[in-house]
TrEMBL record:
InterPro entries: ComFB. It comes from the Bacteria. Pfam families: ComFB. This is Competence protein ComFB. The lineage of its organism: Bacteria, Bacillati, Bacillota, Clostridia, Eubacteriales.
Length: 98
């Protein structure tokens, strides 16, 4: 037991923004489908733009990651993410940084 009386598990703690994982997946998917620039710089620029428009959702465990992903997979939220990704990709296409 630790100092506050909770049993320590062997689970490793991390700090992960689940929204970032979802946005990265959506950006890659959109680039494949629309023929956008697949370079790493454009991908990261699009991710940064989309993420700046979305609220983060941080977790610290793998269990938290799974639960949060399930919670964020509702159609309304996924539509919001898709809209922000589309806007970000439009900006990157119009003003690529390379």
């Amino acid at each position: 037991m630790n100092a506050v009386g909770l049993t320590q598990s062997s689970e490793e703690f991390v700090l992960v923004n689940i929204v970032e994982e979802i946005v990265r997946e959506k950006v890659r998917e959109a680039v494949r489908e629309t023929g956008g620039c697949p370079c790493r710089k454009c991908e990261l620029n699009a991710c940064a733009l989309a993420l700046n428009a979305l609220a983060p959702k941080y977790v610290t465990t793998e269990r938290g990651r799974l639960l949060a992903r399930v919670g964020l997979m509702n159609p309304d939220y996924l539509m919001k993410v898709s809209i922000e990704v589309a806007k970000a990709l439009k900006v990157v296409r119009e003003r690529p940084l390379h």
